[in-house]
Amino acid sequence: MRTMILPVLLCLLVLSLAGCGDEATLPEAAGVGPNPKLPPPKETLIPTVNIAPHKGWPAGGKPLPAAGLSVTAFAAGLDHPRWLYVLPNGDVLVAESNTPQKPGAEFSIGDIPKKVVLWLVGAGVPSPNRITLLRDADGDGIAEVKSTFLSGLNSPFGMTLVGATLYVADTDALLRFPYREGETKIDAKPEKVADLPAGPINLHWTKNVIASAGSTKLYVTVGSNSNAGEEGMENERNRAAIFEIDPATGQSRLFASGLRNPNGLAWQPDSGALWTTVNERDFLGSDLVPDYMTSLKDGGFYGWPYSYFGQHLDPRPEPQRPDLVAKGNRPGLRARRAYRIARPCLLPGQAPAGTFCRRRLHRPARVLEPQTAERLQGHFRAVRRRMALSHARGCSYRLPRCRRSCAWPPGRHRNRPSRRRARCRRRGQHYLAGDT
User: Fold this and answer.
1) Which of 405, 101, 47 is nearest to 227 (CA)?
2) At what angle do helices 2-17 and 112-120 cross, to 10 degrees?
3) pLDDT in tens, 46-86
4) Range 209-212, long-range pairs (CB < 8 A, 24+ positions)
């Protein structure tokens, strides 16, 4: 009887705190970005709990967008949609997925609070185990076609298309299917590419997948089996990591580790670095540990569970591993020696999932008068002609010195001449690109 008292009290506590209190966020002094001011760890008997209510939008309700943007409901009536993937023809694939069933798993009284929390957030119910296709044929922002694209999966999440092959990351395996553009359903049986870590615990069950630039490798995320190693590090083998998989042979290797629950994956188009978002650990205080996004280094170790955001030690894991902490990577500092990668950014809010990169072609353009724009266009056409002629003659062309009459903002010409000329040229291209 005594063994039931604590779980029941915890269950009542969760119910009483669900949806109550202020959202736990970083204090103003910490902010977000690459250089946060993190508060010290603070372990409490009763952690801060604020569960978002599980309810849909009311009739006519929708998110409030930023100024100049609008929001339209693209599709509705989906069962726990977890991930989106847009095909080249514009079709949208939606992974409808939930916590995988664990046949044979023993239920204990201590699982009651966890079950209650899962129920409150709409998780823990049978998984749809399917991928749905949505098609907006007329381009009005509303999907007219909604069909079951793939079924019979096992808690699917990540998807990526390579040529005529669609890869799907189930919770326990990476699968591939033949794909033909325009089809609304795939009936072919899946082919297993590689097994993925799962097992009876499988706490962070979502697996994401992305293809390399040349499509010769696939990268798959695998979350940890615990919050901070409390299940024992023997249960964390091949967890909290990102794997590189050869789709031709199914062979895999560890690409990066120490990432508690990586989700989104994206390639930075300029540097070629792989980026991910990471959901960090809990129960070190209301303001720790913040989630972050980071670039990844091949072979890098990013701290979990022994440290967070560099060498901030977590006192809970046993045994401690100071050797790993000492040689661990601070998230995002450098991915390759040839270039510097942007530092990691702490993210506001809770449990970020997606990462998206696009090439930054130019800064937001300043509106120019037609006469100024035409003069700048003529100026840079002449520069390009002279540079081409110089290269043809086997010599280098030195950029002309910027004059104050070229419409740049005053006070921007006080740097060294070499920097001044290069900056002038870059800004000219930027203004031209924005003007056109």
Assistant:
1) 47
2) 20
3) 777 677 777 778 888 888 888 889 898 999 889 999 999 99
4) 209/158, 209/159, 209/160, 209/167, 209/168, 209/169, 209/174, 209/265, 210/158, 210/160, 210/265, 210/266, 210/267, 210/274, 211/160, 211/162, 211/167, 212/267
Question: Where in the chain do CATH 2.120.10 domains reside?
Answer: 2-52+78-346
The continuous run of DSSP H or E covering 429 comes out as: helix 417-435
What are the Cα distances from residue 344, in Å, to 223, 347, 409?
A: 19, 9, 32
In angstroms, the CA 417 to CA 429 distance is 19
Report the alpha-carbon distance of residue 299 to residue 329 in Å, rounded: 10
Query: What is the rounded distance in angstroms from the CA atom of residue 119 to the CA atom of residue 130?
Result: 21
Q: pLDDT tens digits, residue range 272-319?
A: 899 999 999 988 888 888 888 899 999 999 999 999 988 889 989 988
Low-confidence residues of the chain: pLDDT under 50? 1-30, 333-343, 361-367, 396-421, 423-436
Give the Cα separation of 129 and 75 in Å (integer).
18
Q: Quick one: pLDDT at residue 125?
A: 77
Strand positions, DSSP E, 65-190: 81-86, 92-96, 130-135, 145-150, 159-162, 165-169, 173-178
Strand partners, 354: none
What contacts 227, CB < 8 A, 6 or more positions away?
A: 281, 282, 283
Is the whole model's pTM more than 0.90, yes or no?
A: no
Residue with token string 């930075």: 268
What does the DSSP 8-state code read for residue 404? G
At residue 379, the 3 state secondary structure works out as helix
pLDDT at residue 16 in the model: 43
C-beta atoms surrounding 25 within 10 Å: 14
- Give, in degrees to the nearest 5, the angle at Cα 24 between 20 and 28: 135
> 2-52+78-346, which class in CATH?
mainly beta
